[in-house]
User: Fold this.
Amino acid sequence: MELSSNSHPSRIASVADLKGPGGARPIDPMRKFKTRHRPNQGSYDMSDLAKRIVGHYEKHAAAWDHDRRNSHWNDKVWHDRFTGRLAKGATVLDLGCGPGQPVAQHMVEHGLRVTGVDSSPMMIAFCCDRLPDQEWIVADMRQLALGRRFDGILSWDSFFHLDHDDQRRMFAIFADHACVGTVLTFNTGPQHGEGVGEFRGDPLYHASLAPAEYQALMARFGFRVLQHAINDAEAGGRTVWLCQRDALG
Ligand SMILES: C[S@@+](CC[C@H](N)C(=O)[O-])C[C@H]1O[C@@H](n2cnc3c(N)ncnc32)[C@H](O)[C@@H]1O
Assistant:
C-alpha cells in the first residue's frame, strides 16, 4: 500500500471554528473534511443533522452546482488516478454524483460509461441536461440494489455525509455492485469522528470511521488498498482511498 500523508496536523475543529464568529460565514463545500469527537459536540444533535443531508442538497443544489463549477477543481488528481485505472468503455457507478460536472463529465471525456446515482432530483436533472447519453438515477445510495456490477465505483465527497453505521453498511452495497477487478474510490475523514460544516447558512454533517476500521471492512469484502492519502494537500486536504477488488470476499 502506498501511504502518502502530508505534514499538516490532523485537522480538528470546534463547531465554532467551522461556523465562524458570526455563524454565517459561507464555507466552500470542497473544503477539507474536519472531524470533531462526540464528547465536544456542543448543541448539535448529530443524528438529526445526518438525517438532514438529503434535504440539504436538494435545497442547495443550484448554489452547490454553481460553487463546484466555479471553484478550483483541487481534487482532480484523484479522479485522474481513478479513471487512469479503467479502460475505455468501462462502466462506472458514481454514488452521490451531484450535478455531473466536473466529475462525471471528466469520466465521460475519458470514454467511461457513467451510471450516476444521487438522492437529489435537482442534481440528477442537471446531469440529464449535461450528459444525456449517460444513465442517471434518483436514489439513496444506502438502499441501492441495481443488480448489476460495474468496473469502477466512486463515492466522492458524498460517502462522508453518511453516519457511522450507514458507512459500515455501504461496503456490502459496494460489493454487490463490484466484480473482481473493480476499482473503488471514496473519501473520508482522517480519523473516527463526526463534524459539522456549513453551507449557505445551514449546518452540514460529516462523519468518518477510523482508518483501521475502513481497512477491515475493505478486507472483509475483498478490496485491496492501492493508494491512500491522509489530509492530502494536493487534493484540498481530503483523505482518500483508492482500492481494487481482488476477491469476492
Ligand atoms: C458534496 S456533493 C458531491 C457531488 C459530486 N460527487 C462531486 O464530487 O462533485 C454530495 C452529493 O451527495 C449526494 N448525497 C448525499 N447523501 C446521499 C445519499 N444518501 N444517497 C445518494 N446521494 C447522496 C448529495 O445529493 C450531493 O449531490
Observations:
- The radius of gyration is 17 Å.
- Residues 117 and 137 are 5 Å apart (CA to CA).
